[in-house]
Amino acid sequence: MTDTWPLALLRILVLFGLNLVPIWGFTQEQWTPGTTFVLYWLQSAFSIPITAVLVVMHRRATHKQGHYDATSMMSGGRLAVTSGTRRARSKGTGHGRAKRIHDAVAGSTPPVVTSSTRTTQTGRFTFLSGFLMISIPLLLVHGLFLFLMLGVVWKDAAGGVDVEDLRTGALAMLNMMAFGFAVDVFRLNERPFAWLRHRSETLMQRTLVVHMALILGMWVAAFAKNDAAAFFGVFLALKLVADLCSELPSWMPKDKPPRFFVWLYERFGDGKTDIYADWKQWGATMRANFENDERVVDPARCERS
In angstroms, how far is CA 277 from the centroid of its own chain? Predict the structure, then answer.
């Protein structure tokens, strides 16, 4: 389901609002880069429980298969959150499903994951647990780098954190995020699992953007004298663009690989496989898995699993 234009417009306005808070504070209220970076970290910290609540609400409202055996691969910058049968398959216990996916790609039968297959596995991860296992450690690493940057690299006023400014910014962000949560909850039971997967993955992508900016900032601060203001001004603009791009539809592979990818494969690959056939097979498998994620399963069995 694609959001209607009013909902899509509201989502974009929320993103603008979340980015305008630090931009306004930094440019108009003379917030320090340290205060603004901590505010971005708090945004990520607030987003994790909010997204987790959305996952739980969507799971109870839809009972989609993806919540218990989600497909999410690294494609076009998307983070991997793989759970359930696919983890078991890597240990040699999911050959039956691998064969069904292969048959589906070949055009015979659609892939089906039975409840008995899921309930007999050990160490199974739901989509929610997979999301938390990635996002929380990423947030902690992000916080460690932020501490090193503000406490070791930016020791001057640029790295200072004003508690009052931080409180003002955090309250403004929480209000924006509460409004965004209300927009996301609207008609939640009609939203596909793909929408929820996209929401969780873009959250981690935004955290990585800020994290990479911190690493870049540490290098800039180490070799430049007047680094903070110039670097941070560019970062604010890039963060806004990255957030807006996160609202674009998810990328799905076409039948033919991009020309640049083919060039890389021909230049650095072993030349033993057909890149066009492999790409087509991979895309068909992804689409079959994503379709399987949208299956509605027995609610009683879901609650017990």
Answer: 29
